[in-house]
Amino acid sequence: MAMPAEKADRLRSSRLYGGVGRTVARMLRKHGADPQVESVPVMAAPAALPGRTQPSDPELQSAVQSIRRLSWYHTIDLGNGLVTPGMTDHRPFVDLYQLPESLDGLRCLDVGSLDGFWAFEMERRGAAEVVATDVAAWDQWDMRAESGGLMPTDQTMGDCFQLAHRLLRSIVRRETCSVYELSAERFGKFDLVLISDVLAHLRDPELALERVFGVTRGEVLIAEVYSPALEVFGDARLLEFKGGPAPSAWWVPNTNALKEMIVAAGFDAAQELARFVWPARGVNSDGVAVVNRAAKVILRAKAGQPGTGDQAPRTAGTSQEMAPALSHAGSSR
Ligand SMILES: C[S@@+](CC[C@H](N)C(=O)[O-])C[C@H]1O[C@@H](n2cnc3c(N)ncnc32)[C@H](O)[C@@H]1O
User: I need a surface site. Which of 9, 24, 143, 213 has the fewest CB within 10 A?
Assistant: First the structure.
C-alpha cells in the first residue's frame, strides 16, 4: 500500500516513531525469528472512527483529536469505536498469554507498561488493583553512553497512557519506577506480574528478574523476544550480546537461557505457554513504515509459597503475605 506523502512525513517527523518506534522496530528486526522484514510499506492505522467520519458527539470529537495528536505504541480499543493507532497490536495474541479470564480480587502489576495495553487488559478482567510502572522518561532506558540515547521526543512518557486512562475511565495506578527499583517495601507483593518486551532493553535483565521476583507472591508472566538462531545448540543457555546501542537491545536469549534466568531469580521452573512470530509495526532506515517479525516466547512461573522453605526468596522481597490462588481455567496447566 502506498503511503500518502503527508502521512509518511508525519511518521518520519514523529519523534516517537523516529525514536522509540524505530528503536523497537530495529531491535525486533535484528533478532527476529525470520530475518526477513516485510518491506511492504504499511500505513499506521488512523484512530478508528465510526464510519471514518467525524463523530457528531463533541466529546467523542475531542477524544479523536487528542488521540491523533499523540504517537501511539499500543493499539488500544477505547470503546465508542475509538482504537488508538498503535505500532504494536497485541490484541490478536492476548489468548496466548493465558491470562485468567477473571482476575477478580487480585493485585496485578504491569512492568514497563508504556501506553498501558496490558494494564488495561488486566483491569478489564476484574483485577482488584492494577499498578502500571515505567521509567520516567525516554532517556532513562539503559543505553550505551556513546549511543546518545533515544531521540528526545516532544511527547512525554505516559502521555498516551494518561489519555487512554481518562477515556477508559480506568483506575489503574501508574507509577514511575524502573524495574531495577521495584521493591515489596514500596509496592507490596502482587498476585500476577506481567513483564512484556522489557528484558531485551535492559543491561541487566537478571537483576530485573530478581526485582520482579521480589514483588511477586503469585505468578509472573514473561513475554520476550528470543533468538531462534540460538535454539539449535541442545541444552546450552545462550544469549547474544547486542551491545546496548540505540536501538537499545542488550541481550537476546535463547529460551533455555531465559528459563534458567527466571529460576535463578527465585521463581519455580518456568512453564512455556506459547511461541509465536510477532509482527510489530516499525519504520525502516528510509523512514518507511514496515511490519517487522520477531520470535516471541511466553513463559509463566510461580513465585512459590513463602515460608515453605525451598522457595525462599534469594533476593530482595521478604514479605510473608500469602498469595490468593490464580485460576487458569482452560489453560494447559
Ligand atoms: C517495547 S516496550 C514494551 C511495552 C509493553 N510492556 C508491551 O509489552 O507492549 C518496552 C518498555 O520497557 C520500558 N523500560 C525500558 N527500560 C525500563 C526500565 N529500566 N524499567 C522499567 N521499564 C523500562 C520502556 O519504557 C517501555 O515501556
Answer: 9
Range of the domain at 31: 5-302
> How large is the greatest C-alpha to C-alpha distance in the chain, in angstroms?
63
**Range 280-304 average pLDDT:** 83
Q: How far is CA 315 from the centre of its chain?
A: 24
Look at the chain and report how many structural domains it folds into.
Answer: 1
Does the residue 249 lie in any domain?
yes
Looking at the domain assignment, is residue 294 inside a domain?
Answer: yes
**Tens digits of residue pLDDT in 183-223:** 999 999 999 999 999 999 999 999 999 999 999 999 999 99
CA distances in angstroms from 196 to 54, 97, 119, 201, 233, listed in the order given? 35, 10, 11, 11, 25
**Closest by Cα among 256, 120, 110 to 187:** 110
Which residue is listed with cell 490484541? Answer: 91
Distance 112 CA to ligand 1 centre (A): 4
For ligand 1, what atom is nearest to the CA of residue 195? Answer: 6
214 occurs within a structural domain:
yes
Specify the CATH number for the domain of residue 253: 3.40.50.150
- As for ligand 1, residues whose beta carbon falls within 6 Å of it are 24, 88, 111-114, 117-118, 134-135, 141, 178-180, 196-198, 201-202
CA of 225 to the centre of ligand 1 (A): 13
Nearest CA to ligand 1 atom 3: 197
**What's the 275 CA to ligand 1 centre distance in angstroms?**
20
For residue range 135-161, list pLDDT tens digits in order: 998 888 887 776 655 555 678 999 999
Residue 33 belongs to a domain: yes
